[in-house]
Specification:
Layout: H1 2-8, E1 11-16, H2 20-31, H3 33-37, E2 40-46, H4 54-57, H5 64-67, H6 69-77, E3 82-86, H7 96-102, E4 105-108, E5 114-115, E6 128-130, H8 131-138, E7 154-158, H9 162-172, H10 175-178, H11 185-192, E8 198-202, H12 214-219, E9 226-230, H13 239-247, H14 249-263, E10 271-276, E11 279-287, E12 290-301, E13 307-317, E14 320-323, E15 327-328, E16 346-347, E17 350-353, E18 356-363, H15 366-369, H16 378-394, H17 406-415, H18 423-438, H19 450-457, H20 459-467
Parallel strand pairs: 1-2, 1-4, 2-3, 4-18, 6-14, 7-8, 7-14, 8-10, 9-10
Antiparallel strand pairs: 5-15, 11-12, 12-13, 16-17, 17-18
Helix pairs in contact: 2-16, 8-9, 13-14, 18-19, 19-20
């Protein structure tokens, strides 16, 4: 009789994290046969008042093409089977035990927002920054500082991925170049005071090992104020590099673009952006507690595409160092976590502890596999995880919630005085930001303060709270 009751109601799924990974998981659930046979009911929990995660708070503001992914994500969240519950902090406002009492399955898709550690001397000097913190600042994340120190004329960026390119490009561009984007006033004011005229990007291997994507690499040259410079001596390949170029069209395109930068004569654009290869950072140099330089060791290819040190060191005069060596996920209260790998231990998306699947708990996205790959790669993650959920449903081995009714979670949040936002609230906030932009001839101006976001998204709730 119990199984009959379960089969008569929709499958109830909670997704913690409303970025691309979580939304793709919701989409996969709704496209499954279960959606048409049994029905699914999905609640997306998000710590921020607004959805979209990395797209809103991890992509540079001058990347409208990538931000256009929001259009596709919107279509998923518009579906009646999905509810957004924003401004809900997992572990504080709601716990894993709460979710297990409310849902058949819980998917954790919280992404990665912290900087991966880098073990070199001088890492704690004033002027040594994690790229993730800088990205959060220029993307208007409400939980980060409203100001940023931009007094260095020469800056180093460690890393050869797209985040490093984003950081370098934002540092090298003028504030007025970025003004047509959605940057909020505090970010514009900060960038207007930026003194950087030289930005040096460092990678310990060669052009064939860089993790840039071709479009982002080409975009560096689109700015009228940025001169991209590559030393011709950094154009070097071994057999492993040649194999990599033959095996990947993207790798070959990236190497070709870097070669083209190296063979041309430098121009007279005012801001210089140097791409350095075969330079391994070994120490951040300081004086009086502040960054004054970066020491690198020259490397050489070993035939396999990897490099070995040469013992030749160079000290680069810089006043700030940004570390773009990868993101790291946060551990979640009550959920197993592999601190070394920075992921939730899982088998194909099933959360495991000491080899055993924790009934009803799943994961997807960067917190499942680590912060690698492009946004689109999370679709495959989501499909794999959802298939595990459906297999477990067919095997009748999902969680058995006490109160699976859709109203139960709303009643719980309201009883705890959680001021959650909704999908309708996002539409109100979206329109508010667009109206701010229209007043200045821009598409949007992002709202930074959490209270202001809440007031725009759920004005009735804010008014009621103030009256009480």
């Amino acid at each position: 009789m119990h199984n009959l009751i379960i089969n008569l109601r929709p499958l109830r799924v909670a997704i913690v994290g409303a970025g691309p990974a979580g939304i793709y998981a919701a989409d996969a659930l709704m496209k499954s046969d279960t959606a048409s046979e049994r029905g699914v009911s999905i609640d997306l929990f998000e710590r921020m008042p607004a959805p979209f995660g990395l797209i809103r708070y991890g992509v540079a503001p001058d990347h409208p093409r990538i931000k256009g992914i929001i259009t596709a994500l919107h279509k998923v969240l518009d579906k009646p089977q999905v509810r957004l519950l924003g401004n809900v902090d997992f572990g504080t406002d709601i716990t894993v035990d709460d979710l297990r009492s409310l849902y058949d399955a819980v998917i954790f898709s919280t992404g990665a927002t912290e900087d991966r550690a880098m073990d070199v001397p001088g890492i704690d000097l004033d002027g040594s920054f994690g790229a993730a913190q800088f990205v959060a600042w220029y993307d208007g994340h409400p939980d980060f500082s409203r100001t940023w120190p931009l007094g260095a004329e020469k800056v180093a960026v460690i890393g050869v991925g797209n985040v490093a390119l984003d950081v370098a490009r934002v540092l090298a561009k003028t504030a007025d170049e970025l003004l047509p984007t959605e940057i909020p006033p505090n970010v514009y004011d900060g960038l207007a005071a930026n003194r950087a005229v030289e930005v040096h990007v460092f990678g310990r291997r060669g052009p064939a090992q860089a993790k840039f994507t071709p479009l982002e690499l080409k975009e560096l040259d689109h700015s009228p104020t940025i001169e991209v410079i590559v030393d011709p001596e950094d154009i070097e390949y071994d057999e492993g590099s040649a194999v990599a170029r033959r095996a990947s069209k993207i790798t070959d395109q990236v190497a070709t673009i870097i070669e083209n930068y190296a063979i041309r004569e430098p121009g007279d654009r005012p801001h210089k952006l140097f791409l350095h290869f075969f330079e391994s950072p070994v120490e951040i140099l300081g004086a009086d507690g502040k960054v004054i330089g970066l020491r690198t060791e020259r490397t050489r290819l070993d035939g396999s595409g990897n490099v070995t040190p040469t013992g030749a060191f160079t000290d680069w005069e810089v006043g700030a160092v940004y570390r773009a060596v990868g993101y790291l996920s946060d551990d979640l209260p009550g959920i197993p976590f592999d601190t070394l790998a920075g992921v939730i231990p899982n088998e194909a998306g099933r959360v495991v502890d000491e080899g055993a699947h924790l009934t009803g708990l799943y994961t997807t996205g960067w917190v499942k596999r680590g912060p690698i790959g492009l946004i689109g790669h999370t679709k495959g993650d989501a499909n794999e995880t959802v298939e595990c959920i459906l297999d477990d449903m067919r095997a009748e081995s999902l969680n058995t919630p006490d109160t699976p009714q859709e109203s139960a979670v709303l009643e719980l949040l309201e009883s705890r005085d959680v001021q959650f936002t909704t999908w309708d609230g996002w539409h109100r906030l979206d329109e508010h930001e667009r109206s701010l932009g229209r007043a200045e001839g821009r598409e949007r101006i992002k709202v930074v303060e959490r209270d202001d976001m809440l007031a725009a998204a759920e004005p009735d709730k804010v008014s009621a709270r103030r009256r009480s």
